[in-house]
Amino acid sequence: MSATALAPVSSKTRSGYFERHGRGRILELDGLRGLAVLSVVLWHFVAQLGPPSDPKTAFGMVRFALGLSWSGVDLFFVLSGFLITGILVDARDSLSYFKTFYARRIHRIFPLYFLLLATVPIVGALQLVKPEYVQEAGVPLLSYAFFAQNLFTSWMHSWGMPWLGSMWSLAVEEHFYLAFPAIVRFVSRRRLLIFLAVCVLAAPVVRFALRSNQVAEYTFTLCRADALAIGALIALLVRDPELWKTAIAMRRWVIAGALSTAPVFAYLLSINHGKGHYSFPFWGYSVLAFFYGATVLIALTSSAQGLLAGSLKTWFLQQAGKLSYSIYMIHASMKQLCESYIATPAYAVLVAAFATVVLSVITYHLVEAPLQRRGQTLYKY
User: What is the mean pLDDT of the chain?
Assistant: First the structure.
């Protein structure tokens, strides 16, 4: 194992990626994060609104078009793999590597996460929502406190408590945070690349082995490792000067590759939102992961003044990206709260959407942003 593997390169050989994007926030990725969270919200608020509708009607066509919007979470995984790997690789030789990483993650994730957990006994005791929305459904509330809920959902073939329905992906993320920093710190670049390649290849095999358990193939950590690994591989690619140049030169081919998945997506839409074919677990999620990986790479290599970059930097997507964590955490609960009091599904969704935005703005400014700044101020690499 090389002691200098993945060490920062000198300014003369530094990747052009840093000249283009620096080491701060990448606005294009904030825009993609906004698209990801809006996609998930549209799935829960529109694609799943009311009973099945006639696909020949206008609303039926809209619902059909949103048939894969649930995959916004796959884009989140790719983005997380990219961003977290970048942070870890750039800080690999820091003396405070582990302390700073975990302290900042705790400040970023825990406050809103445990605040929402704390609402469960209150909402249940006061009967503020329909009883089934706060029932454990085979997934103990305590498991959420240890980020083990997706292990229980997989074991019990259950989606868990509807009030906390979006939290399974946080468990996948936390497992990634627990294991990956040590791998980056102590494994050579070559072995890290091999490990990530194995993750990309092994995840569909694990999913296919669990194909009789639709919940596990969707929520179990090992089943989603390919999306995280693809994001991580892109983070390593753009940090290599020669590979970054190659990515710029081959950008049109990457775009062509992404567009070539269109027939695959059309086929997925035709089979029950992509999950209706027995072989989907083996290849479907991988296709989505590669598509979103290509999307991230295209965004990173796009011209700062180009149409794509300009679109991703629009105020709406930037705000959605900034509030994405709060929106993701809150939106399902708001929908269930409104459904408990408003009989008309369309009205319930409209009120829930408004409530989600308002509460997300409040929690971002009062909870999320201040504690995130505190973590970044107190803990330095």
Answer: 90
